[in-house]
Specification:
Layout (H helix, E strand, L loop, with lengths): L1 H26 L2 H15 L5 E8 L4 E6 L5 E12 L5 E10 L2 E5 L2 E5 L4 E4 L5 E5 L8 E6 L3 E6 L4 E6 L4 E5 L15 E3 L5 E5 L4 E5 L5 E5 L17 E5 L2 E5 L6 E5 L4 E6 L11 E3 L6 E5 L4 E7 L3
Antiparallel strand pairs: 1-23, 2-3, 3-4, 5-6, 6-7, 7-8, 9-10, 10-11, 11-12, 13-14, 14-15, 15-16, 17-18, 18-19, 19-20, 21-22, 22-23
Amino acid sequence: MRKNKYYAVFSLLIILAFMGYIVFDTISPDKDNAASVIRDEKANQPQQMWQIHYELFVRSGLKAVAVSGNGDVILGGESFVSCYNLDLKEKWTLEIPEKITAVSAFGDTVYACSAESVFLLDRNGKIIGEWGPYDENCLITSVSANKNYVAVADASNKIVFIIRKDGEVSSMIGHFGEKLHIPSPYFDVSLTDDNKLQMANTGMFRIETRTLDGPVLSTFGVSGMGHDSFCGCCNPAHFSRIPQGFITAEKGLNRIKILDSEGYFMEFVSSVNDFTASVPLDIASADGKTIYGANPADSKLYVFTRLGE
């Protein structure tokens, strides 16, 4: 019992440290620079090609969004996982006694993560398995699955767990050798169909493609305030793969943009907006035509579409 209390206190200290970092990031001098860039973008912004097509208040504590292969929208947050259809009509909601920090879906399985564990749900929202915790003082911030594996990002320990579908850990990227630069509790991952890992090494301002054993195959991204850069202390906060390439979401400058498959800037989805600068939207899209953004600041799901569509 005493050991569990020690773990609980240490976990609380880790979370408080991350919260302190978020406050520092929000009030740092870069905020003035960001405000200047926002003013410049308002003056020089090309014609807006995207719009907020729909807003849906889900429930307090919304945190994460994913899209399944059949177009269902999976949402997670404070003590819940929900599934909505293409028309954003609720199909089911599972009450769960932990805060859900990340969601993903592959085939008939939904993966919903708390800070320390991975819950496996069937297509009707029933829990069919639970994995973890895989390390002490975890802070899981992202999960992604393909046919063979599940990738879980732990921002606290700066590790990506590559897990087989039976729950056994296959590899741990960042555990040995080169350490990952993850200064804040934003750390996204995505598995490709050909078993490669794409991850946001946020302190390096880049997205990396790696083998599942860890070696880096390619990277893109630089630090800066320009359209083709990632701003602030540590970005992109979130990203999602789409047929055209990537959608990225940043904090500091709260902006969402589309990059091609090599990381070159294509267009903004949202750059001049009223979103809280320090709270990025979690993003998901299956086709790059309809983009979903889960906003923890107001617990709303935002649906972005092109003008005229």
